[in-house]
Amino acid sequence: MKNNKILVKNVYLSLGDLEEKTKHQVLSKIGDNIGEYFEILRNYEDLEKYVLEWNEGNHFRNSDIRMGKGFVWLVENC
User: 40-49 burial string, b = 16+ CB within 10 Å, else e?
Assistant: First the structure.
């Protein structure tokens, strides 16, 4: 993200609150990574709207509902 131009005007990020609590080395860093991505978005002048939504559970819990919430947010904000 640091080295690439963002080609959209609106960004929706979603993460489960248990994803960074795993013993898996790569996944345990995801909370820090998404926080860093959000800071990049915050400083990106061409974006109109962006959001980071934390949800209960891990990657697989209520993924259909979380995906639907993302689509609804994008439709309402684009």
Answer: ebeeeeeeee
